[in-house]
Amino acid sequence: xxxxxxxxxxxxxxxxxxxxxxxxxxxxxxxxxxxxxxxxxxxxxxxxxxxxxxxxxxxxxxxxxxxxxxxxxxxxxxxxxxxxxxxxxxxxxxxxxxxxxxxxxxxxxxxxxxxxxxxxxxxxxxxxxxxxxxxxxxxxxxxxxxxxxxxxxxxxxxxxxxxxxxxxxxxxxxxxxxxxxxxxxxxxxxxxxxxxxxxxxxxxxxxxxxxxxxxxxxxxxxxxxxxxxxxxxxxxxxxxxxxxxxxxxxxxxxxxxxxxxxxxxxxxxxxxxxxxxxxxxxxxxxxxxxxxxxxxxxx
Length: 299
Description:
299 residues; alpha/beta; Rossmann fold; Alpha-Beta Plaits; 2 domains; 11 helices
């Protein structure tokens, strides 16, 4: 299990992330979503033991990962900014990684190379960006990691290859009880593969939720009244994202929908409608009042 306890990371006077706490269980996929520059890469590099936290700690199976070579050997981190040895082939990189990861499997490497249709003897610098991402993930899976960290790893892939990589990660996670953390600025990429998704904003964890439960706990109401209403008229109802267009009012309710609907009906509306929320709408509601560019997150 991975556990972040009040993790803060600074670079000089700049605070990249502040007081982050969350857990990732074995055999699970945890998604980090946030705009570019929100701190997702900093979190992943701190979990990988590349960065030492300036506050708090990252524990892997109860050990501080930065100080534990044994735990670091179980982790494979696929960065957004890929690096390969100059003029190297995937086979060259496989030999390189096998010197650092004692569980590296050339059998797994060869099988995955065939699955993705990659040439293991060709120079990697001749590959497209998408092919390089596939190659790095093949190398990572061949190390048989207990923890797999993916930083924007599906960026630049065509839909068929993205689906192939998703299926491979999910199958490996289930078979090996691997803990996976995957970051993206695109929520659509995470919704289908993650057990939990967290939203990072303003250097902090704004939301951390179970994907299966989140939609069931929130709803959007659309109401119409004959007379004029303002937000102050709804103070008895715990709501977010209040919007008014003429006499049509919409807002988000979290928690007891029946109670909210009962209070609304007591106000004698002409119309009351309730809708389930998409993940995008839920996250927007949680970030109400921020100045973030949501096109970066939900585009």
